[in-house]
Amino acid sequence: MTTLNAGDKAPNFEAKDQAGNMIKLSDYAGKKLVLFFYPKASTPGCTAEACNLRDNYQTFLAQGYDVLGVSADSAKRQQNWINKHELPFPLLADEDKAVINAFGVWGPKKFMGKEYDGIHRTTFVIDENGVIEEVIAKVKTKEHTAQILK
């Protein structure tokens, strides 16, 4: 697992979003980006996190941030989640885990005593020049905006 830290250049990425649009890091040049990785669309924790970001989306835009979510879910699952919760930001369907691995958020996890590999819920705040300003590894799903915009 690669470990990225504040001050590192964000890895270039290119992946399709829920609608099949190709999205690249360079699309956000000159803007700040909140790039959040989550384990699975439509699960309680991920929904709480996405809805917290949704509810504060205008604040992010007003402060010069764009928001982009990433998981290994299919485009269809991402689109259904967007429709159900009216999420205003794109979600990358990173089924081959290229972006997930580039950011080093895939690895061993434990849940209810079982070990398995999965996505570690992590958010990267990337500045206008593509440099990571902050890595939030202990995400509070219901208070995530406050963690980012402190």
Report on the architecture of this protein.
- The protein is α/β, with parallel strands linked by helices.
- It has a single domain (30-148), classed as Glutaredoxin (3-Layer(aba) Sandwich), CATH 3.40.30.10.
- The chain is built from 5 helices and 9 strands, in the order E-E-E-H-H-E-H-E-H-E-E-E-E-H.
- The chain has helices spanning 44-55, 57-62, 75-85, 98-102, 144-148, and strands at residues 14-16, 22-24, 32-37, 65-71, 91-93, 106-111, 114-119, 122-126, 132-136.
- It has a 5-stranded mixed β-sheet. A two-stranded antiparallel sheet has the order 1-2.
- The protein is globular and about 40 Å long.
- The two termini are 28 Å apart.
- The model has no long low-confidence stretch (mean pLDDT 96).
Summary, kept brief:
The protein is α/β, with parallel strands linked by helices and 150 residues long.
Throw out a few tags for this protein.
150 residues; alpha/beta; Glutaredoxin; 5-stranded mixed beta sheet; two-stranded antiparallel ribbon; 5 helices; globular
**How do the helices and strands follow one another from N- to C-terminus?**
EEEHHEHEHEEEEH
Count all strands and give the number.
9
Oligomeric nature of the chains: single chain
The figure for the number of domains is 1
Shape: globular
Number of helices: 5
From the N-terminal CA to the C-terminal CA, the straight-line distance is 28 Å
Major pleated sheet: 5 strands, mixed
